[in-house]
Amino acid sequence: MFISKEELRRISNWICEVLDPQINRDDGDVLDHDMLRRLRTFLAALESTAIRTEDIHYSHIDKALLDICDANTKWPVDLVVRAEKAVQALEQRLGPLRNLRLEAPSASGRHLKGEVTQDDMIQKIKAYDANNGQESRKNSWLLSGGDLERAYTIGHSGFEVGDWWIETTYAYQDGIIDDSRDGITADEDGAYAIVVRDDHEIDSGRPDMMVYRATGTGRGKFMLMRNLNSRACVRVLRSSRSKSEWAPRAGVRYDGLYVVTGYGVKLDTIQKDEWVYTFRLSREEGQPSMEKALRHPTAEEYNSRQAYEKEKNGRRSAELSLRTTITQMAVLTEDVKGRAAEGDEGYFSSLTEQ
Fold first, then answer.
1. How many separate helices (H) and strands (E) can be counted in the chain?
2. Residues in contact with 280: Cβ distance below 8 Å, sequence separation at least 6, in sequence order
3. In angstroms, rounded to a whole number, what is the distance separating the alpha carbons of residues 31 and 319?
4. Interhelix angle 61-68/77-94, nearest 10 degrees
5. Please, what are the averages of pLDDT over each run of 10 residues along the chain (354 residues)?
6. Which residues, other chains included, contact 132 with Cβ-Cβ below 8 Å and sequence gap of 6+?
7. What is the DSSP letter of 135?
8. Phi then psi for 314, rounded to 5 degrees?
9. How far is residue 343's CA from residue 339's CA, in Å, rounded to a whole number?
10. Among the listed residues 235, 240, 237, 236, the one whose alpha carbon sits nearest the alpha carbon of residue 301
11. What is the CA angle 87-92-97, rounded to 5?
12. According to the model, what pLDDT value does residue 118 have?
């Protein structure tokens, strides 16, 4: 039986995003007779279908199967047995599913480009060390550059509520924000976007109302004040690094347009002597609901985040290993040159003298 990669992806999303959460909540009672029949037929077909590695990369069907086979699963026993057989059939051909190296797409569909050769990485290390120092290299392989004209535009700027990125770097690349360290995209006319992270959001119990804390020395908070008088809306993105209950579990999510309705300034003498600026924001009406935004990241998006982290950590480890090798070779070369200059041919010269 032939199963297209599109069909694999559709069923994988159905299992991961719809069925698995419901089954773990309701103990499998959500599956009616027709659903059971379809799943049994599908899992049986997987045992005899020649699934390719690229099909798994595209569909994440491995994640769906492993969810069903999880040790704490509440899926019906017969489906678990069938899923385990499908996993065994795939692993006989492709190796352990948990070890498959996945490509990591960004929210806009870009992929981290294929393999980087050792020579490429050596040249990259040398170039970054020479021009920027060792610390600047830690994210050197990520995408760079952003659409600042788009970032400094009032409104959605072509983005949709619920748009999601693996990390802030990609949101900057797409132009929804700039690279401001204080998380506020702004110019002399006012603010255009906010990235909520750390303890910047004081929860109000509602995702459409928020109190935003702005700290640090950046000018963004002063530009955000201007939005109170201009009534210009700002794009609000919540990061998984935020402590807010409305933060996504991974990455960065666009939650829509908010309006500044007030602000206050006070001296924080408890933590450290600095001025803290708090802004009250209310979500604009007439845009897709927060319910749509809170669906993200989806199971598929979350999987891409995990694959991305695996890819990034692997490349960082490889770069560190190569840099260590380069350093050791450089030290050895200098040592050899030093010995040559002193007329010392090393161990063999002492043997000759004897």
1. 13, 8
2. 209, 210, 211, 212, 260, 261, 262, 263
3. 48
4. 140
5. 84 86 75 89 88 83 86 86 90 78 42 37 48 43 61 92 87 86 90 92 85 84 93 94 89 94 84 81 93 86 71 63 70 66 50 42
6. none
7. G
8. -65, -40
9. 6
10. 240
11. 50
12. 40
What the block records as the tokens of 285 is 């009406």
Is the peptide bond prior to 207 cis by the omega test (within 30 degrees of 0)? no
CA 54 distance to own-chain centroid: 21
pTM score, two decimals?
0.60
Query: Which residue from 167, 256, 177, 164 is spatially nearest to 209, judged by alpha carbons?
Result: 256
**Cross-strand partners of 327:** none
Q: Identify each DSSP E strand in the chain by its residue range.
A: 164-165, 184-187, 190-198, 201-202, 209-214, 234-242, 252-268, 274-283
Q: Are 253 and 163 in contact (CB under 8 A)?
A: yes
Is 290 in contact with 296 (CB distance < 8 Å)? no
Encode burial over 235-248: b for 16+ CB neighbours within 10 A, e otherwise.
Answer: bbbbbebbebebbb
Query: Helix crossing, 118-132 with 299-341: angle to 10°?
Result: 80
Tokens of 88: 């065994």
User: Which residue has 């920027």 as its token pair?
Assistant: 132
In terms of Cβ atoms closer than 10 Å to its own Cβ (0-12, 13-18, 19+), residue 47 is: middle
- How far is the C-alpha of 308 from the C-alpha of 305, rounded, in Å? 5
- To which residue do tokens 């300034």 refer? 265
Residue at 188: amino acid letter: E
262 token code pair: 């007030």
Distance CA 297, CA 249 (A): 7
Q: Amino acid letter at 255? A: D
What residues does 256 pair with on adjacent strands?
236
End-to-end CA gap in the chain: 78
How many angstroms separate the Cα of 258 from the Cα of each of 78, 285, 321?
Answer: 49, 9, 46
Pairing of strands 201-202, 274-283: unpaired
